[in-house]
Each structure stands twice: as structure tokens, then as C-alpha cells.
Amino acid sequence: MLSRGDVARRLRVTKTTVLRFEGTLLHPQVDGEGVRYFDPDEVERIANSRAAKPAPEASGEIAAEAFRLFRQGYDLEEIVMRLKQPPATIRYLFSEWCSGL
Fold first, then answer.
1. For residue 76, what are the domain limits?
2. Is 37 helix (H, G, I), strand (E, B) or coil?
3. What is the pLDDT of residue 5?
4. Do 36 and 18 sit in the same domain of this protein?
5. Helix (H), strand (E) at residue 29
6. Which of 41, 53, 60, 74 is deepest in the core (most CB within 10 A)?
7. Which residues on adjacent β-strands are paired with residue 29?
8. In this structure, are 47 and 9 located in the same domain?
9. Are 11 and 37 contained in the same domain?
């Protein structure tokens, strides 16, 4: 099992970004003291998927609106429907938003 710091280093993101990924991209196990541990296989799948995919095209207007909806707590499915964009584009924008730019 990996710590949040281990995950941040592997994904090349901040610990805050790992926290944002929790419950969506990452599903940690929590021990009796509330410490979160991450499955190395899940982390590796995320690392591979982030490295293998080219960035989908999205206009600045679409990105700005998606970021606003992420901030307001809308789920990805609702954002796809509202913005009429492919799921891959919204997933990519969500990853960018979580990474803190």
C-alpha cells in the first residue's frame, strides 16, 4: 500500500491533488487511525492512463465553464450533458483542474 506522498510522487502531482482525486480516481483504504493507503495497482493504472492519452481538444470557453462546474460540485456525467462534450474531454479537463494547473 502507498501513502498519499508516494502517490503524489508517482503521479507527479501535489498531495493536495491526490486528495482531490480521492473518491473519484482514487479509492483509498482507511486504517483505524484515519490514515489513507492507496492500492499500487490503481495508482499505476492512473499513471499509465495519464501518460498514454493525448490531450483532447477543448476551447478556452468550454474549459472555463467545466472548471466552474467542477468547483460547484457537479459530477462528470452532468457536466458532459450540460456542455455537450465527449466524456474523454471532460475527464481530461477534470484531471487538469485537480492538478491545480
1. 60-98
2. strand
3. 92
4. yes
5. strand 29-30
6. 74
7. 37
8. yes
9. yes
